[in-house]
Amino acid sequence: MVETVYLGLGSSLGDRVAHLRNACTALRALCADPTLFVAATVYETPHMRLNPADTTLYPDHLNTVVRLETELAPEALLEAIHEIERNCGRIREPGQRWQPRTLDIDILLFGDRQLHTSSLVVPHPGIADRRFVLQPLLDLLPDYRLADGRLASERLADPEILSQVIKSTAHADELLL
Ligand code: A4P
Ligand code: MG
Questions:
Q1: Whole-prediction pTM value?
Q2: Topology adopted by domain 3-176
């Protein structure tokens, strides 16, 4: 069964555009129909960080969202994603989350499925609170409604979200070379 999947991509270490581009190339290879693969605008965003003062330890991210059609099951897609992250030099320190990373790929939406397993929570629980996810997701899916039924576009206009700084970049076209 072919499902439409939205993935959040982020990179905060090394050649960030190259990491996002390599991710897009690898993800396109997973598509049932590679011509349907699309990427949103790339945004530059400060790290949502534990210590706001430390921009050296937590450099800015490039973030975007991509849409693809795949026949893979969710767990198989997650495994493929982890391999793509490893190929981009992602190193996971055991027990450490939210570290700077060459590449992070999160499954935001998987068709209309709701998953709550030990390895996957879908829709991704961070969607509603992160402008760096909401904005590119809405670029691709303007009518998206959050799990609680609110329009994501209305959430994006909330002062709590608008106060999060994001800057669109000119990198989008480079991702699909
Ligand atoms: N996992 C559960 N659900 C999912 C899902 N829907 N998609 C599990 C992907 N993975 C999912 O992820 C930890 C585990 O989450 C995985 O093994 C998987 O089984 P990870 O990639 O190893 O660690 P992480 O990314 O550091 O943690 P986490 O909880 O995924 O954090 P997020 O949500 O990715 O946030 N600031 C800016 N500006 N831009 C960013 O992209 N990203 C983060 C990390 C923090 N601050 C950021 C950004
Ligand atoms: Mg992650």
A1: 0.94
A2: Alpha-Beta Plaits (3.30.70)
